[in-house]
Every structure is written in structure tokens, then in C-alpha cells.
Write a structure and sequence with these properties.
about 150 residues, disordered N terminus, 5 strands, alpha/beta, Rossmann fold, about 35% helix, five-stranded parallel sheet
Length: about 150
């Protein structure tokens, strides 16, 4: 893996991890690269278990308990993880959902993988950024409303 990709996949999202519960418990880092964010939660004692699923997860950090490599849109992959690992207390989706064609389907499957009282922490880049809008528009014409929060 080249150094730019390695550094990107090693990024700890400390800005978002502030939202993690004090006792994050069993953590699934979805699209987490080598698992830097989940490994960080484990290293500071917030997570008891850290699992990562990503296309490059076979190169996960040593602090990660298990890495799964594959396509997030493959429902069998997430079902396999749930079957092996059980339910998760915290699921991280940090800048990944915008990369799948049907994010709601992925989110619905992730919700079924949550333990009672569990949380999904998601960050989605600013899709209103003019460069991204122009890129999307040049490839495909979308007829979707832009939601204001």
C-alpha cells in the first residue's frame, strides 16, 4: 500500500470520536481502513473489542481484534460478521456511507447488528460542496432534495 493511502487509512477521527460513549464496548469500524479509530478507542479504554471491515482490512493494526475485508454492499459479508462477532455496542461509519450505492440498506443491516442501547456514529462529508456537486452532476443527473439541518 503506498504511503498516501496508508496515511489516509491510519487517520484517527478524534473530532468524531468525542461522540463515542464512555463505555463504547464492542466496536465495529465500518469502512475504517486499518482500524485506526477503533484501535484508538480500545487504547484509551473506551472499547473492549475492536473489529474493522473495509476493502483494506487485511492490513489492520495489531490492536484490532479481527479484520474483515470485502464489499460493504455485500449483505452476506455483514451477516457473516454478525454471526461471528455477535451484536455491537458502537458502530462507526466515518466517511464511508457516501461511497455505497444504497447507504440506507447498509444502515438498516448495521442497525440489526446493534446491541440494545447501542449507537451508530456516522460522519458524511459535506455533499453540498460545490466541487462534489459538480462531479456528481457531470456523471449523473440526480433528482433528490438537499436536506437542511
Amino acid at each position: 500500500m503506498n504511503s498516501v493511502r496508508r496515511e489516509y487509512h491510519a487517520l484517527v477521527r478524534s473530532d468524531v470520536l468525542e461522540l463515542a460513549p464512555q463505555k463504547a464496548g464492542s466496536v465495529l469500524d465500518v469502512g475504517g481502513g486499518i482500524g485506526a479509530s477503533a484501535a484508538y478507542l480500545k487504547s484509551i479504554g473506551k472499547a473492549s473489542k475492536a473489529i474493522v471491515v473495509d476493502l483494506v482490512a487485511e492490513h489492520h493494526l495489531p490492536e484490532i481484534d479481527k479484520g474483515y475485508s470485502g464489499n460493504l454492499e455485500d449483505s452476506h459479508l455483514l451477516a457473516h460478521i454478525a454471526g461471528e462477532q455477535g451484536l455491537f455496542d458502537t458502530i462507526l461509519c466515518l466517511d464511508v456511507l457516501e461511497h455505497v450505492s444504497d447507504p440506507w440498506s447498509v444502515v438498516n443491516q448495521l442497525v440489526s447488528m446493534l446491541a440494545p442501547g447501542g449507537v451508530i456514529i456516522a460522519s458524511i462529508p459535506n455533499v453540498r460542496n460545490y466541487r462534489l456537486v459538480l462531479l456528481w452532476y457531470s456523471r449523473i443527473s440526480l433528482n433528490l432534495p438537499i436536506l437542511e439541518f
